[in-house]
């Protein structure tokens, strides 16, 4: 005989959890299951089933539990949820099934009360589970706890400390206009995802305020982000610029007033992205207007050129065959082990120096070849008329120096370096132009620069023309050196380090900061690998004292491998890191 009371009582739930679940599950998991089962029984709601079996995945998501903990104990958990389902079914049967309706009608007829209206079976709906009311600042159940290491564990701990689940926490802190799904907050509690978007960081601030935690408590446990937030309110900003700006914007950028956002954007663009010095602004503007003559097959493949990489790009001209052959002859003269028979030279160019000179000569000829009506405002010379023999005319150099000063606004050491090359090419005994008079046959008339009389004069006295150019270059070097301006200080970025009592100690602070901000390799393995690489490069650089180029070319001999012979390292001009089994 069935009674009106439920066959399953809260006392029975407590006994089951203590005897069957407590020995096999953590205490916190048992508490959540017991609380959840009590709510199901009190509100007469069925557990989640998939087919004929208990849906452990839905149960884990609802309670923000680890599915891996529940699956092995499914045989222990399922009986009590089946009992809850039976108790709920019995309660609903007593509330309104047809067999009960007949007995109710008899009781109503005997008592003389008016009969109830007949309700169709299909119109009868199961009572919905009512959501718990949201309290702005819930009181904690306990005030002392063991501080967890991970973000997910911290979120679950403080939610359960206030008698809540992450499922209910979503209702308390997430607003409809935020556009955040419930599964996102649940995945935070599981530890499978980390908050990275700006709106996610704002929700973290709401949780901290709700649980009265210090500001930045949860953010400190998320580790170093592997990417910048991508949901900042940046209207009219291209995706490429958005990716650069996002790393330097504050987390509360979206909550700040419009004028404050505009001020922040202007500061980041000026100081960080584009640079705050006049030189950086000049460089950013000039890089949009390319001008150069590219020589084919002359640059070393290890040295990337700052000149545009496609000839179709505006202002880039491929060197004609004759000019390219002249460049090859100069490189052979300055880089060969021995000078050619009958020629003399002073100094040899290394690989890096040769690649740099090729780039500088390309810019020198590019100024003459650029159209006058372009932004570069060049001379507009036909590329087929260009030749290294032009360097013997003082008026050609004066035009180039004037063009450089008009373009930049002042003279720099760049002009001094180029004039030094011109003087070296015309120097007696060792100058390449001085020893190559046949190149005069490549000269052609250029309106306003080189006249037929000028060409005839240098062909008649090539040595005298070289002497005049040598003296002219030396005079111009002294004059420019007197008024040249230092447009940038290459040591400015590291002045705080150089001026410190212990520069090495200052650099060690960088490595210590990398270790303090090391990302969690379980969530962001790539960011963690990049941080380890940065740490190793800095420590190796501090120990070896190598410069950037030498550090990039450093070889590594793995443990157990034969080291590279010293002679081969000397030929390659590279170093090698070797393991010491003794140390």
Structural description of this entry:
With 583 residues, the chain is mostly helical. It has 4 domains: 10-110, no CATH class; 151-226, 434 Repressor (Amino-terminal Domain), CATH 1.10.260; 288-483, no CATH class; 494-578, no CATH class. 52% of the residues lie in helices and 3% in strands. The strands form 3 sheets. Strands 1-2 form a two-stranded antiparallel ribbon. The chain has a two-stranded parallel sheet with strand order 3-4. Strand 1 and strand 2 (53-54) form a beta hairpin. Helix 8 packs across helix 9 and helix 18 (413-426) packs antiparallel against helix 20. It is elongated, with a radius of gyration of 40 Å. Residues 1-5, 97-126 and 299-312 have low confidence and may be disordered.
A few lines on this structure:
With 583 residues, the chain is an all-alpha fold. Helix content is 52%, strand content 3%.
Helical content class: 40-55%
From the structure provided, what is the oligomeric state, counting identical versus distinct chains?
A: single chain
Proportion of residues in β-strands: under 5%
With helices defined by DSSP (H or I, 4 residues minimum), what is the helix count? 25
Structural class: mainly alpha
* Beginning-to-end CA distance, first to last residue: 84 Å
The spatial strand order of the largest sheet comes to 1-2
Give the count of structural domains. 4
Taking Cα atoms only, what radius of gyration do you get, to the nearest Å? 40 Å
Identify the overall geometry.
elongated
The largest pleated sheet is described as: 2 strands, antiparallel
In round numbers, the mean pLDDT is: 82
Q: Which runs of at least 5 residues are low in confidence (pLDDT < 50)?
A: 1-5, 97-126, 299-312
Number of strands: 6
């Amino acid at each position: 005989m069935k009674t009106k009371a439920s066959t399953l009582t809260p006392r029975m739930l407590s006994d089951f959890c203590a005897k069957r679940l407590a020995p096999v599950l953590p205490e916190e998991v048992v508490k959540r299951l017991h609380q959840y089962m009590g709510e199901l029984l009190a509100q007469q709601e069925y557990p989640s089933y998939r087919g004929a079996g208990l849906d452990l995945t839905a149960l884990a998501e609802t309670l923000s539990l680890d599915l891996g903990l529940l699956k092995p104990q499914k045989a222990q958990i399922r009986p009590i949820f089946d009992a809850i389902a039976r108790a709920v079914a019995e309660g609903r049967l007593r509330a309104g099934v047809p067999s009960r309706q007949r007995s109710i009608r008899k009781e109503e007829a005997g008592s003389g009360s008016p009969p109830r209206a007949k309700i169709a079976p299909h119109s009868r709906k199961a009572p919905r589970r009512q959501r718990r009311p949201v309290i702005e600042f819930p009181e904690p159940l306990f005030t002392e706890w063991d501080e967890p290491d991970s973000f997910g564990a911290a979120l679950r701990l403080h939610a359960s400390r206030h008698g809540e689940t992450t499922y209910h926490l979503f209702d308390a802190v997430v607003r409809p206009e935020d556009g955040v799904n419930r599964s996102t907050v649940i995945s935070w509690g599981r530890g499978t995802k980390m908050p990275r978007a700006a709106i996610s960081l704002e929700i973290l601030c709401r949780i901290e305020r709700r649980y009265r935690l210090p500001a930045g408590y949860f953010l400190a446990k998320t580790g170093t982000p592997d990417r910048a937030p991508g949901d900042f309110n940046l209207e009219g900003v291209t995706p490429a610029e958005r990716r650069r700006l996002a790393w330097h914007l504050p987390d509360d950028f979206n909550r700040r007033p419009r004028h404050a956002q505009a001020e922040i954007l202007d500061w980041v663009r000026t100081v960080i992205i584009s640079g705050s010095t006049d030189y950086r602004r000049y460089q950013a503007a000039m890089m949009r207007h390319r001008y150069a003559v590219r020589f084919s097959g002359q640059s070393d493949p290890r040295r990337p050129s700052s000149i545009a990489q496609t000839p179709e790009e505006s202002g880039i001209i491929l060197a004609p065959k004759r000019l390219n052959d002249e460049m090859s002859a100069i490189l052979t003269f300055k880089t060969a082990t021995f000078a050619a028979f009958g020629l003399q030279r002073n100094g040899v160019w290394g690989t890096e120096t040769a690649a740099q000179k090729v780039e500088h000569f390309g810019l020198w000829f590019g100024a003459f070849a650029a159209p006058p009506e372009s932004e570069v405002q060049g001379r507009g010379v036909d590329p087929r008329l260009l030749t290294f023999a032009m360097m013997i005319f003082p008026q050609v150099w004066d035009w180039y120096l004037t063009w450089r000063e008009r373009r930049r606004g002042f003279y720099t050491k760049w002009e001094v370096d180029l004039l030094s090359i011109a003087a070296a090419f015309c120097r007696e005994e060792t100058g390449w132009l001085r020893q190559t008079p046949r190149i005069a046959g490549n000269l052609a008339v250029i309106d306003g620069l080189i006249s037929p009389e000028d060409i005839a004069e240098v062909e008649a006295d090539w040595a005298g023309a070289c002497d005049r150019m040598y003296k002219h270059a030396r005079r111009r070097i002294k004059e420019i050196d007197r008024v040249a301006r230092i447009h940038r200080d290459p040591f400015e970025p590291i002045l705080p380090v150089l001026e410190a009592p212990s520069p090495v100690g200052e650099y060690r602070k960088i490595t210590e900061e990398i270790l303090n901000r090391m990302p969690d390799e379980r969530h962001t393995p790539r960011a963690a690998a990049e941080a380890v690489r940065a740490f190793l490069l800095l420590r190796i650089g501090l120990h070896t004292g190598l410069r950037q180029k030498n550090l990039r070319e450093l070889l590594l001999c793995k443990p157990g491998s034969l080291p590279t012979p010293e002679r081969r390292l000397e030929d390659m001009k590279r170093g090698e890191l070797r393991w010491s089994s003794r140390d």
